[in-house]
Amino acid sequence: MLTDKEILKLINDAIEADPFNGSPGELYEPLDYILALGGKRIRPVLLLLTADMYSGDLQKALPAALGIELFHNFSLIHDDIMDNAPIRRGKPTVHIKWNPNTAILSGDTMLVKAYEKFLKLPDQYLRPALDIFNQTALEVCEGQQFDMNFETQGTVKIAEYLEMIRLKTAVLIGASLYLGGLLADAPENDLRNLYNFGIHIGLVFQLRDDLLDTYGDEKAFGKKNYGDIAANKKTFLYLKALENAEDEDRKRLSTLFSSDMVDPEEKILSTLGFFEKTGVKQATEDEIKKHQKLAQEYFDHLMVVPDRKKIMWEYTEILAGRTT
């Protein structure tokens, strides 16, 4: 079996060997740019780790892994426009380096290129692979719309937030694991368990992302701290603070996230104070542990010998405790 680092090298080598060429250059240059920013390639790594766990042919599964990575980067380009994010992986975002219109078109082009990768799969896998990919792509868009709705929605429940991040983040991780199993001829019951394992790993990943936005090392994280607070994002931390706060504090925190008249620095400092007072950092860690436990339950049901599960479990443990 290959390690996650060996699989990451396989993916990076494949990306570098197939740069985007075409005219006009302004359309294609952003695609190479965002892929060259690197990142952990979590989704394609999970896909190929899964295929390898079932002794599958990694070269057969590689087009799907690359398609998933292209789709993910398409979504990042568009998300950064919608969030007006200036930095991605420590570098200017595509719409900042070029302009929003170019970023939109380049993102659309990357989505088309993702489908081109899937069309390289063997015929017997193409339809089921595209079925799960299309379902997932639609759900990611639904999750992004819910995320934007929450910015102006007066009341958001924690259950609603968890459903939003399931759609926006977790389903793509679940689909990656499912596709890896599908392309390695895993049993049908294992495909369901792989998908659900991925859903809970995805929830863990996004909740960790929420924590890192507020409590992470900005240089290591590759994004500016407190972006969620500045953008009035109703993250798990914010919603838990509202749930745990006394009435007066709850009103003051709500006002901070609904007024444009508050000084940004004062807003951040005040919000951090409320977070500290209501214990949301530990509450978020507790929620992460809950989903880790659920993930393990699905993982334990996979019909794979323990030795072949080891690399996958260790990799997802690293994701759960990541600091970047």
Oligomer: single chain
Would you identify the CATH architecture?
Orthogonal Bundle
Summarize the helix and strand pattern as letters: HHHHEEHHHHHHHHHHHH
Helix count, DSSP H or I runs of 4 or more residues: 16
The strand line-up of the biggest sheet is 1-2
Number of strand segments: 2
Determine the mean pLDDT: 94
Question: Poorly predicted ranges (pLDDT <50, ≥5 residues)?
Answer: none
- The share of residues in extended strands comes to under 5%
CATH topology descriptor: Farnesyl Diphosphate Synthase
Overall shape: globular
Number of domains: 1
**Going by CATH, what is the homologous superfamily?**
Farnesyl Diphosphate Synthase
Biggest pleated-sheet summary:
2 strands, antiparallel
Distance between the termini: 26 Å
Radius of gyration in whole Å, from Cα?
20 Å
Helical percentage: over 70%
CATH class descriptor name: Mainly Alpha
Structure description:
With 324 residues, this protein is an all-alpha fold. The protein has a single domain, classed as Orthogonal Bundle (Farnesyl Diphosphate Synthase). The chain is built from 16 helices and two strands. It has helices at 4-16, 25-36, 42-53, 58-83, 94-97, 100-118, 123-152, 158-182, 188-215, 218-221, 227-230, 236-244, 247-256, 264-278, 280-300, 306-320; strands spanning 87-88, 91-92. Strands 1-2 form a two-stranded antiparallel sheet. Strand 1 (87-88) and strand 2 form a beta hairpin. Helix 4 packs antiparallel against helix 6 (100-118), helix 7 (123-152) packs antiparallel against helix 8 (158-182) and helix 12 (236-244) packs across helix 15 (280-300). The two termini are 26 Å apart. 40% of the residues are buried.
